[in-house]
Structure formats: structure tokens, C-alpha cells
Design a protein that fits this description.
The protein is α+β, with helices and mostly antiparallel strands. The longest helix is centred in the C-terminal third of the chain and has 13 residues, at about 75-85. The chain has a 6-stranded mixed β-sheet with strand order 1-2-3-4-5-6, covered by helices on one side. The protein has helices at about 25-30, 75-85, 95-100; strands at about 5-10, 15-20, 35-40, 45-50, 55-60, 65-70. It has one domain (about 5-100). The termini are far apart. The protein has 3 helices and 6 strands; from the N terminus they run ββαββββαα. Strand 1 (about 5-10) and strand 2 form a beta hairpin.
């Protein structure tokens, strides 16, 4: 795999992996991924196929999140991905807060 690749489609599937934590790169990439199942390098996953007006994602601990398909869904999704970029416990505490 080339280092400059941001997203890579998994062979024979509608799943795409995003290999960057840069919010601007994610924002630029997401519109091309509509209708796909997207996994992020931090373990978050989201189905970008609308389900009754929502996109449904899962954090690295398997807890689901729903994003209302409105004008600000992408901002909410990127904030959610950024939140989980930091090492956190299942409850969302930063590892440095609970385990230092």
C-alpha cells in the first residue's frame, strides 16, 4: 500500500478503510464514499447508507452512534472520529485521566 493513499476499498466489498486522522482529509474524502461502509484507523466504523434519515456508526468499543442526515452530519461525524482518536476507556475517559 502506498503511504499517500487516504482510503482503500477492501476487495469485493462496499467497505472502505480511511487511513488518516486529519479532519480536513476526512471531510474531502467522505462525499465520495456515500453508500459505503467506512472504517477509520482509530476503530470507528460508519455506514454511509442512509437508514431512515440517519447514518449509523460504531465506536472502537462497539457502542453505536447515530448521525442525523442533515446539513451538519459531516461535522458531527468528524468530531466523533476525532474524539476517539485519543486513547480512551469504554466509558470515554482519556486513558491518562483514569490510568495514570
Amino acid at each position: 500500500m502506498q503511504k499517500n493513499k487516504i482510503a482503500q476499498k477492501i476487495e469485493h466489498s462496499k467497505t472502505v478503510q480511511i487511513f488518516t486522522n486529519d479532519p480536513d482529509m476526512i471531510r474531502a474524502t467522505l462525499p465520495r464514499l456515500m453508500g459505503k461502509y467506512v472504517t477509520f484507523s482509530n476503530g470507528c466504523k460508519i455506514d454511509l447508507k442512509s437508514q431512515n434519515g440517519y447514518f449509523i456508526g460504531t465506536n472502537p468499543y462497539g457502542i453505536d452512534a447515530m448521525f442525523d442526515e442533515n446539513d451538519s452530519w459531516m461535522d458531527a461525524l468528524i468530531s466523533w472520529v476525532e474524539y476517539w482518536n485519543k486513547d480512551r476507556t469504554e466509558s470515554g475517559l482519556l486513558m491518562t485521566e483514569c490510568c495514570a
